[in-house]
Amino acid sequence: MSGLSNYSRSQAERFQRHFALAGFGIGAQSKLLGSRAVVIGAGGLGAPILTYLTAAGVGAIDIIDHDVVDRTNLHRQVIHSEETIGQPKTSSAAAVMRGLHPEVEITEHQEAIDETNALRLIEPADIVVDGSDNFAARYVVSDACEIAGKPLVSGSILRYSGQVSLFWSRLPSGERGPTYRDLYPEAPDPGEVPTCAEAGVLGVLPGVVGSLMATEAIKFLAGIGEPLIGRVITYDALNSHFGEFRLRPDPAREPVTRMGSGEAPEARAAELLDAALPADTTPSAADTENSADIDFNPFTGEPKQADDLTPGEFRRAAADGKVGLILDVREPHEHQAGSIESAVNLPLMQLWHSEDPPAGMEGATEEAPVVVYCEHGIRSRQALAVLKQRFPQHPVKNLLGGYALWQQQ
Fold first, then answer.
1. What pTM did the predictor assign?
2. Homologous superfamily in CATH for domain 35-259
3. Which SMART domains match (predicted)?
4. Residue 310 has pLDDT above 50, yes or no
């Protein structure tokens, strides 16, 4: 479908504003009508996602949710109503969607997504949009999309904050793209991070974050703009602040090739580095000898930033008493396998979901800042962005090249 003659009269009227939109027009609208989105979750995030994908004219939409509508949902899951309490969320949402745009093909899957069905459920998708509300589902969806090479718009919310990104393991260039496991390598232990039911969530927050997710999906399907690949947008509702940080694939992470294979191996960081890094990204002897003055991260190729400390700079500052809190944002088993002396372990996911500054951060000064590190300086740069956004009064630095480069000194 490419010309206006291929549109029904109601469609031609419906999409007039899109046709008139510079850079969009009939061509982009036709791409939307010919595409299929698979949406995980018909709850808080799913409500704006499903509504706007339907209104925008995505031709086919699959809804996956096993839950039923409850009154406690209604302050944020605005696609449902008092009349649909007790009904499956898939059918409640589908009824609203069909009323909004009857010509959209809607397929309901009243089931929970898991390792046994994920690949089947996402198989027809041109894009997957994950609005699920639990970590188990997010990892399953991410792993399935990585295996199948499907683009994935992912978002999450808690209390007053949210984040959005677009993950794609197989970029058109042939390069490996970032996935959810590059942001959060492993799921937290049960009870480590509270759920929305336990911690609460501002009712309007899913509307903001879900709308951003719908926007990214529409842009991608329509072929317009710059997709949110390799970037994560954060939103802090209390402070009316949007932030952004870069995300790259972790070169030490083994790609997920089968469902249930995504757990990081329980091995020392040096062993992971030797086994998983491509030969051309492993730091050379010359790199490590001169790393005190190195001006880039040898694991990612990114240049040294103003907020970075090289291992040499960090060692000198620590020896002079010019380092405050040392924060290790790796997973607990990584920290236990080897860490910098006096470092406090606070995994990135736990840091993200905490509203309070890490213990000891209050004493940080320009002369003795907080220093964050991870394995290769990837997660720590994300932690740096979160800490600077939420607690700008406390100086923070990032250890360039992370523990792996520091350990080689």
1. 0.72
2. NAD(P)-binding Rossmann-like Domain (3.40.50.720)
3. RHOD
4. yes
